[in-house]
Structure formats: structure tokens, C-alpha cells
Design brief:
By secondary structure, the protein is α/β, with parallel strands linked by helices. The protein has one domain: NAD(P)-binding Rossmann-like Domain (Rossmann fold, 3-Layer(aba) Sandwich). The protein has seven helices and eight strands. The protein has an eight-stranded mixed beta sheet with strand order 3-2-1-4-5-6-7-8, with helices on both faces. Helix 4 links the parallel strand 4 and strand 5. Helix 1 crosses helix 7, helix 3 packs parallel to helix 4 and helix 4 runs parallel beside helix 6. The longest helix is centred in the middle third of the chain and has 32 residues. The chain is globular. The two termini are 33 Å apart. The protein binds NADP nicotinamide-adenine-dinucleotide phosphate. The site of NADP nicotinamide-adenine-dinucleotide phosphate (NAP) has 27 residues, from helix 1. Belongs to the short-chain dehydrogenases/reductases (SDR) family. It comes from Anthostomella pinea. This is Uu.00g054250.m01.CDS01. One of its GO terms (molecular function) is oxidoreductase activity.
Amino acid sequence: MTVILVTGGNRGIGLAIVQAVGTRVADATVLVGCRSTANAEEPIKELKKLGVPAKLKALEITITDDASIRAAVKVVEENHGKLDVLINNAAAVTLPKSTDLTDVRESWARTLDCVATSQVLVTKAFLPLLRKAEWGRVVMNSSARGSIGRNIALELPPSPHWLYNCSKAALNLATIDFRNAEVRDIPDERDHITFWTVSPGHCKTGFNNFRGVKDPAEGAEVIARLLESKRGEISSATFWEFEEGKFQQVPW
Ligand SMILES: NC(=O)c1ccc[n+]([C@@H]2O[C@H](COP(=O)([O-])OP(=O)(O)OC[C@H]3O[C@@H](n4cnc5c(N)ncnc54)[C@H](OP(=O)(O)O)[C@@H]3O)[C@@H](O)[C@H]2O)c1
């Protein structure tokens, strides 16, 4: 059985990820991460009605709350003894209330916490359980907005939200830091956890007041493809997207 945790799995792209991996990964238990289990009850019922074959279970985890992270690790340890795949999907942006420096500083601090720091802490907290799996994998749901290569090449539409782009760039580098720590500290490659970053693309969700252009299911496709790959086929510390029918790498 493959145990997969999707943080923020109760709506938006997270829910689409739950549906995609719950359908395409054989013999999966998908833990639907949510701030309150009540938020996951309806979505889980809907997915069951749609015939998603995986076992779906709500798991309370607020990624910005250390006690909640610790409690979630304990639940997964007691119920499953391992975690095969961690999908760090949950995130939120806090825009400044005004141009006052204190407000702007506060919004940057909160956004960085919810888009990068918390993903690092959640990953660190789950590392011991990921090590107990036959092949531990971590997926960071990032954004092409955090690609330094695409930014420097002026390939992205202008964005007023530097705080989001910079936070995603930090998350991207953390993916590489995690891979580097495996390579440096763990001599046998067969024991390495694999770390991937993805860009789901501009999807219609509450995140952007449903102004995105892709259906969240299209946004989830890149993660389903990664989880369908066999060990060693797709290198750790690589950045992926699925755009216009193509599964391709994004430059860091
Ligand atoms: N939508 C896009 O176009 C787009 C593009 C590129 C990347 N992304 C990335 O895709 C991911 C999902 O975005 P989305 O568009 O699906 O957003 P969304 O519809 O706003 O959903 C966000 C999810 O994250 C959860 N969440 C927020 N803060 C949390 C916290 N502190 N602890 C735990 N859960 C928390 C929310 O829970 P509640 O229901 O409790 O609020 C919700 O389940 C994000 O990482 C985002 O940056 C989105």
C-alpha cells in the first residue's frame, strides 16, 4: 500500500491531486490534509461517488502550526508506520493591508512562512516516516513564478506579487537543499528520498478568484505523471510542468 499525504487536499489543486493520485496510483491510501477534518468530509464523499478507488482519509494538518504538524506525524506513524509520498500543496498569500512598511513586512513574513518555511518544516517532520517507506518521495507544489531562469529571461507575465514569486523561489532552492543533504549524508543511493518541484500552471481556484485558465485537474496532471514514474526514471531535484499536452522540465 502506498501512503500519500496531500496538504491542503480539501479544495483547489490539492483536491484535484487527491483525485488524480487516488485514481492512478495502485493500492493507495490518500491522506487528505486539511485544517479541519470537517472541511474534507464533503470532498471525500464526492470523490467516492466519482469512483476514486484509493482509500481516502482526512488528516488534520495546519502547516503554519508546529503542534498541528507534530500531531499529524503522530497520527500517520500510529496508523501507517510510514509515509511513501508527501505532497506539499497547501499555501496562501497574505497581501499587505497598505503600503505602510510595517504592513508590507508583515505580509512578506506571513507569505514566506506559508509558502516556503512551513513546507520545509513539514518535510523535515515527516522525514523519519518517509525513510521507513521503500521509496520516499516529496513533491513541492511550487510555481513557474519561482523560476529564476524564466524570470531572468522575461518569459513570465508581469506580477505585482514579488512576495509570492520570491517565496516560491525559496521553496525551489529548498528542494535542491533537501536533495543535496541526501547525497552528502546518505552513502547508499537506494536509501535516498526523491525530491521534486512542480509548477501546476495558472489554474482556476480560490487562490486567484477563479481567474486561472486551466482546470485544477490539468494542474494536478504533472504530479500524477511524477508518481507514475519508476524509481530512477526522473532525477531528484528536478522541476516539472505539464503545459499544452507536454510533460517538461522548468528551468530553476
Ligand atoms: N491556482 C494557481 O493558478 C496556482 C499556480 C501555481 C501554483 N499554485 C500553487 O498550488 C497550490 C494550491 O493552490 P490552489 O490554487 O489550489 O489554492 P486554494 O484553492 O486557495 O487552496 C489552498 C489550500 O491550501 C490550504 N491552506 C492554506 N493555508 C494553509 C495552512 N496554513 N495550513 C494548511 N492548509 C492551508 C487551504 O485550506 P483551507 O480550505 O482551510 O483554506 C486549501 O486547502 C499552492 O501551493 C499554490 O501556490 C497555484
